[in-house]
Fold:
Amino acid sequence: MTAVHCHQLTKEFGTGATRTPVLRGIDLEISTGAISMLVGPSGCGKTTLLSVITGLLNRTSGRVEVLGEDIDTLSPDRQAAFRRRNLGFVFQQYNLLPSLTAAENAAVPLFADGVPYARAVARAREVLGRLEMTHRADARPAELSGGQQQRVAIARALVHDPALLICDEPTAALDAHTGHAVMEMLAAAALSPDRAVLVVTHDNRIFPFAHVITHMEDGRITHSETNHHEPQ
Structure:
């Protein structure tokens, strides 16, 4: 099943003489049940493409469908609700709230959706347990290693069972061993036939985990390649 479909997608910033094209006719499909990686040099448009796919930026032309929805046609409130319920985000800079415990940080998407505190934290503890973080559920971010903080960030991304998991450079700040462990967790999450995982990365150490690697350059998709072996 296709989770993301982009057809002749463009994005420009500015007008007139200052107009700058950033996305130049993107055609892209992201399938469920797989890890798709988007790679390319800095400044090629990867982050802008992510922002358009998630509705944080409006497209200039073309079409984007995410889980069957054209997000640009939704009101701002409905866009926010769509992201909150259907998308999970994992970032390089974990973005954990320092005053909250690991379990509370992981529960933030549930809090935002109105789930009562006790039920939200119990669900977060369950997900942290799957990531071997039960013993650190009551620790605050300053008491956690980088790898542990990234596990909390992954738990936060998965706690509401999103259909699309977006990961922006999730291993760039991690050593090889921890990065490999993080990708194993994301690979396990991607095994669901109802979930797609999209990873933007410069980290070629994790390429073996991809089912599909799509290359970008200068705002365009240049080519895609499929891994015909099982992810490592």
The mean pLDDT is 90. The chain has seven helices and nine strands.
